[in-house]
Amino acid sequence: MALFLLGRRLFKRRGDIHRAATAIQPFVLCSSMASGRQHVNGVDLYYEQTGRGKHAVLLLPGALGSTRTDFGPQLKALNKEHFTVVGWDPRGYGRSRPPDRDFPSDFFERDAKDAVGLMKALGFGKFSLLGWSDGGITALIAAARNPDLINKMVVWGSNAFVSQHDLELYDAVRDVSKWSARMRQPMEEVYGAEVFAKTWEGWVDGIARFAKRPEGSICMELLPLITCPTLIIHGEKDPMVPSFHPQYLLKHIKGSRLHLMPEGKHNLHLRYAEEFNKLVEDFLEG
């Protein structure tokens, strides 16, 4: 979610206001939506669940994101006869607070353990992963660590390492007080101004630490362990994720495939929800 907002900021810098992604609109929960909290790994994780299909799917949100801010069109429109769709707020994000979010060196690994633990606690023995941005990184780790549990995986806007280019981008947007009020508003509505600013700064520091690792690795060494069918989607106009990131995933995840969306930006699953949902459904059912 936060990286989506950053993408909008970059387009404003380039004078591309009219083509920038529109603000996320709230979605109306359908009558078949269930929600609750599940105690997993010492914390209460908020989740929403819809559909009654045999194929379980977990939606993994981006940095500071939540199921409602990041996946409205998917919760609403993915085929409820074929899929059981679960959205969640990772610990310290959205409605999975307390605790406050922190960013230790293993925060992606921790999120992956929480995600798998949640699905197990909800009674799903095998499931697929849809991961956006940071959620895609979490999905990659979860799939590598739990090959027997993961059916299929879709990731977009994600990276297995932090390059110097990425680091410079994150540093440039560290101070949210320099963002426009319109850009801050969605996150401030979830967290409050002070907590949002503090949490976002913590995320920047947390992601920056990976740049100090060999090759800037977040999970490069885990990619060869992924055995599930994997679809990588990349928006060719994504200002946040250079094309070398999906190309690297394609090269190092055995049997994976890459789908390019020429007009897609970082929030392609929101901006082009119908096309995205069809693409995902075809892949998961294939």
UniProtKB/TrEMBL annotation:
InterPro entries: AB_hydrolase_1, AB_hydrolase_fold
Coiled coil regions in record: none
GO MF term list: serine hydrolase activity
Signal peptide annotation: none
Domain AB hydrolase-1 intervals: 56-186
Gene3D superfamilies reported in the protein's UniProt record: alpha/beta hydrolase
Pfam families the UniProt entry points to: Abhydrolase_1
Top-level taxon in the UniProt lineage: Eukaryota
Classification via PANTHER family: VALACYCLOVIR HYDROLASE
Protein name per Swiss-Prot or TrEMBL: Biphenyl hydrolase like
